[in-house]
Specification:
Layout lengths: L31 H7 L6 E5 L4 E2 L4 H11 L4 E5 L18 E5 L5 H5 L25 H12 L5 E3 L1 H5 L5 E3 L4 E3 L2 H5 L3 E3 L4 H12 L13 E4 L7 E4 H6 L2 H4 L5 E5 L2 H6 L1 H13 L9 E5 L2 E5 L8 H8 L6 E2 L9 H6 L2 E3 L1 E2 L10 H5 L4 E2 L2 H14 L6 E2 L1 E3 L13 H6 L19 H11 L6 E2 L7 H4 L3 H10 L4 E7 L3 H7 L4 H18 L4 E8 L6 H13 L2 E5 L1 E2 L7 H8 L21 H11 L7 H10 L40 E4 L8
Parallel strand pairs: 1-3, 1-4, 4-5, 5-8, 10-11, 11-12, 15-19, 18-20, 21-22, 22-24, 23-25
Antiparallel strand pairs: 2-14, 6-7, 8-9, 9-13, 12-13, 16-17
C-alpha cells in the first residue's frame, strides 16, 4: 500500500460550511469588536492558545484557524487568556461548534522550566518575551475554564502538548506517570500529530450534527470508547514475546497497551507500552490501540495520512496576515522575530533521534511543499514583511536536508516498523538524493530582491556526506560564518541510545565542509552540539567527550542537559532503565544506565564545560574517584589544572564574566532538545 495514494478526501474538498462566508478576515478576531466589524453574531469555533497570536504558518493556531476559515467556519482566537476565572473565556461568546484548545507551539512545561527544573523568566512566544503568561499544564487549565464558561460546548485538544501526552506518560517535572491528558483535562476529543486533515473532518461532521463520540473513525484522534465486539484484541505483551508475524490476525485488530494503573507502578510495563506505541507510528500499517484508564478505555486511532504536496501548498498559501495581531502594538515577540524571514519547505523527520519529539508528532514521512509555493512565500516576505533587507534567514524545517527524500519502494515504506531510516546505517531503500533541494536553493537565490539565503535548520550530516555537490552548494552560498551540526556525543554507548551515527561520520562531514569552504575562499566554522546526561551515558563517556573537545580546541559557552520530554523514546529509557529500542521481555530486557542524581547531572554538564574554572573542583574530585587523576594538570593532554584561580569554584558565590576564548580555540553554543514549532 502506498500511503501517499490512500483513498482520502483532499484536504480542502468539502463544500464550505457557509458558502457565502466572504473574504478572509484581516486577522482572526480576538475581541467582540472585531467580530462586530466582520458582521458576526457568534463564532463557530473558538481556538484557545497559550501563545501570542501571530498570523503566520509557523504558528499552529494560525494554520488551523485559517484552514477552518477556508472551510467557511467563523473562527475566533483567545490568546493567552487570564486563567484565574472563566470570564475571559467568554470574551468571544459561546461557540456554536467547539472550543479548540492547545498549549501552543511548545509543551507548556518545556517552555516554562529548564532541564534542571528551574523556572524560566522569559517566553519567546509571548509579547515582550515575558514569562508567566500561561499556566503550567495550560492545556488542562484552559479546558477546565472553557468547561466552566460553557459546559455544553465540546472541547477538542490539539497541539504538541496534547499530542505528546495522548497516552499515560512519564512527566519529568512531577517525576511520576500521569494519565492521558484527555483524561486529566476532561475534554471530549484529542487530535494528535499534524491536525489539518483531522480537524477539517471533525469540524464538518460536528457541523452536520454528529457528536464527538461519533468521531471514532477519524485518523489521528484519541477518545474514550468501548472496544467494538467484532475487534480482536492483541496484547502488547505478545508483540515482543513471539514472532510478530505470528501475532498478526485477520480482520479488525486493536492493540491493548498496559493500563495506566499498571504502567504507573510497573516500569517494565511502561517500557513495553512505549515501544509498541513507537512501532505503531507508520500510517501505512499502524493499528488502533487502547489503554485502560480506570473503568474506561482510551482509544487511539492510527496516525493521519501525510499531506500531499498539493495539500501542503494549500495550507501554506492560505491568506495569512504574516504578522502579530495588532493588539500587541510594538511589543516584540521573540519567536516571531526569529522566523519572520524564514520559510518552511517540509515537515516530518525519519531520523528517529530518541531524545527528539519531532517524529512522535509529525511522523517519519516527509511532507513537501512545491517549489512554486515556496517561491511565492519568499516573494510575500519580500513584499509584505517590514524590515526585510534581502536576507532569507532559513530555508528548511525539522531538518535542513530531507526535502523530497522518501523510501524508493512505497510497499516497503507502508510495511516498515523501524524507528529510523538512517540508523544504524542509512537504509538502502532510502532515496538520499539532494538534487531537488539543490535545484530549490538555486531558484530561491534567483528571486528578485533576495540577496542572501541562509540555511539555519540543522543539517543531517550523515545524509549530506552522500552528496558532495550538496555540501559544496551549501558552503558556497548558504552559510554565514558558521553552521550548526549535531553529533550529540562521541562515544558509541550514548550514541546507540540516541540512534545517532558515530563521530567518524561527523569527522568526514567536517573534512568535506572545510574543503568546500577553502575552495570557495571562505573562512567558516562548524558549531557541534552535544547533550549531557543522556540515557546510556556513563561518567567515562562524558570524560572521553571532554578530552575530545579539548583535543579539537572546542569550548562550549552554553550546554544542554538531557530533558526528558513527554513520550520520547529516551524519556522511556530515563524513567524505566530499559532499552526500548530492543524487545521488552519480563526479566530479560536490556538495561540502560540513566543519569538522575543532581550531582551526576551536574558532573556530566561540567565535562562539557571543562574549561570553566567554576567546574574544576567538581571535575578534579570526579577524576580522582574515577582513577583518572592523570588528567589533572597543566599539560595540553590533561583536562583540568591542579590550581584554582581566586574567586572561582564553589566559593565564588557570584557569576563570573565570560572569559575570552584562548587563541585558536573555537567557541560554540550547544543545542537543546529539538521540539516542533
Amino acid at each position: 500500500m502506498d500511503i501517499r495514494a490512500v483513498a482520502v478526501n483532499p484536504l480542502i474538498s468539502l463544500p464550505p460550511h457557509r458558502p457565502n462566508a466572504g473574504k478572509a478576515a484581516p486577522f482572526l478576531p480576538m475581541s467582540r469588536a472585531e467580530m462586530d466589524a466582520l458582521g458576526w453574531d457568534a463564532c463557530d469555533i473558538v481556538l484557545v492558545t497559550g501563545d501570542a497570536y501571530v498570523d503566520h504558518p509557523s504558528f499552529g493556531m494560525a494554520i488551523i484557524g485559517r484552514l477552518l476559515e477556508a472551510q467557511g467556519f467563523r473562527v475566533g482566537i483567545l490568546s493567552q487568556p487570564d486563567w484565574q476565572s472563566a470570564e475571559p473565556f467568554k470574551a468571544l461568546g459561546k461557540p456554536t461548534l467547539f472550543f479548540g484548545v492547545t498549549g501552543g507551539n511548545l509543551d507548556s512545561m518545556v517552555n516554562r522550566y529548564t532541564s534542571d527544573r528551574r523556572l524560566r523568566h522569559d517566553d519567546a512566544y509571548t509579547a515582550g518575551g515575558e514569562g508567566g503568561k500561561r499556566p503550567d499544564r495550560c492545556t488542562i487549565v484552559y479546558t477546565q475554564r472553557c468547561r466552566e464558561a460553557y459546559k455544553d460546548v465540546p472541547i477538542i485538544l490539539g497541539g504538541i502538548e496534547a499530542s505528546l501526552r495522548r497516552i499515560a506518560h512519564y512527566d519529568y517535572w512531577s517525576d511520576k506517570v500521569r494519565r492521558s491528558i484527555l483524561a486529566d483535562a476532561k475534554a471530549d476529543l484529542l487530535i494528535y500529530g499534524n491536525a489539518e486533515r483531522a480537524v477539517v473532518e471533525v469540524a464538518n461532521r460536528l457541523a452536520d450534527g454528529e457528536s464527538p463520540r461519533d468521531l471514532d473513525s477519524v485518523r489521528g484522534v484519541a477518545l474514550f470508547r468501548r472496544v467494538p465486539e467484532h475487534y480482536a484484541e492483541l496484547h502488547a505483551d505478545d508483540l515482543d514475546s513471539a514472532d510478530e508475524g505470528a501475532t498478526r490476525q485477520p480482520g479488525a485488530t486493536v492493540i491493548r497497551l498496559p493500563a495506566y494503573e499498571q504502567v504507573e507502578q510497573d516500569r517494565e510495563a511502561y517500557a513495553r507500552a512505549s515501544r509498541v506505541l513507537h512501532r505503531e507510528a507508520n500510517p501505512g500499517n499502524a493499528r488502533p490501540m487502547v489503554q485502560r484508564h480506570g473503568d474506561r478505555d482510551l482509544w487511539l486511532n492510527p496516525p493521519p495520512i501525510p499531506l500531499s504536496s498539493d495539500e501542503m501548498d494549500a495550507v501554506y498559501d492560505l491568506p495569512y496576515a504574516r504578522a502579530p495581531h495588532p493588539s500587541y502594538g510594538d511589543a516584540k515577540i521573540p519567536a516571531w522575530d526569529m522566523i519572520k524571514f524564514s520559510v518552511t519547505i517540509m515537515r516530518g523527520c525519519f531520523g528517529g533521534c530518541t531524545f527528539c519529539s519531532i517524529t512522535e508528532h509529525e511522523g517519519r514521512v516527509i511532507q513537501n511543499r512545491s517549489e512554486g509555493s515556496i517561491l511565492r512565500e519568499i516573494e510575500l516576505i519580500r513584499d509584505k514583511t517590514p524590515g526585510f533587507t534581502g536576507v532569507i534567514s532559513d530555508v528548511g524545517g525539522p531538518t535542513a536536508n530531507m526535502y523530497r527524500m522518501a523510501c524508493k519502494d512505497p510497499k516497503i515504506e507502508a510495511a516498515c516498523r523501524l524507528p529510523s531510516c538512517v540508523f544504524p546505517e542509512i537504509c538502502p531503500n532510502l532515496n538520499t538524493s539532494h538534487d531537488d533541494l539543490i535545484r530549490l536553493y538555486r531558484k530561491v537565490r534567483e528571486v528578485k530582491g533576495v540577496k542572501k539565503v541562509m540555511v539555519a535548520s540543522g543539517v543531517r550530516y550523515d545524509l549530506a556526506v552522500q552528496s558532495p555537490e550538496y555540501i559544496k552548494e551549501l558552503v558556497t552560498h548558504h552559510v554565514g560564518g558558521y553552521l550548526k551540526i549535531a553529533p550529540e556525543h562521541t562515544e558509541r554507548g550514548p550514541l546507540d541510545k540516541m540512534m545517532k551515527p558515530g563521530i567518524g561520520t561527523y569527522d568526514r562531514f567536517k573534512e568535506m565542509f572545510e574543503a568546500a569552504a577553502k575552495q570557495a575562499g571562505k573562512k567558516y566554522y562548524l558549531i557541534p552540539y552535544f547533550i549531557a546526561a543522556h540515557p546510556g551515558t556513563t561518567d567515562e563517556d562524558m570524560m572521553n567527550l571532554a578530552i575530545w573537545l579539548k583535543k579539537n580546541r572546542y569550548r562550549a559557552d552554553q550546554v544542554q542537559t538531557f530533558l526528558p520530554s513527554p513520550m520520547a523514546t529516551a524519556t522511556a529509557m530515563y524513567h524505566t532503565g530499559v532499552n526500548t529500542l530492543r524487545g521488552v521481555r519480563r526479566g530479560a530486557s536490556d538495561t540502560v544506565e540513566t543519569v538522575k542524581g543532581g550531582r551526576q547531572r551536574k558532573l556530566h554538564k561540567a565535562f562539557l564545560r571543562y574549561h570553566d574554572p567554576d567546574n574544576w573542583p567538581l571535575l578534579r574530585e570526579a577524576l580522582k574517584e574515577m582513577g583518572r587523576a592523570d588528567l589533572i594538570g597543566s599539560r595540553p593532554d590533561q583536562l583540568v589544572p591542579a590550581y584554582q584561580p581566586p574567586g572561582t569554584g564553589k566559593a565564588a558565590g557570584t557569576k563570573r564574566p565570560v572569559r575570552p576564548t584562548s587563541r585558536g580555540a573555537q567557541r560554540f553554543t550547544t543545542k537543546g532538545v529539538p521540539l516542533p514549532k
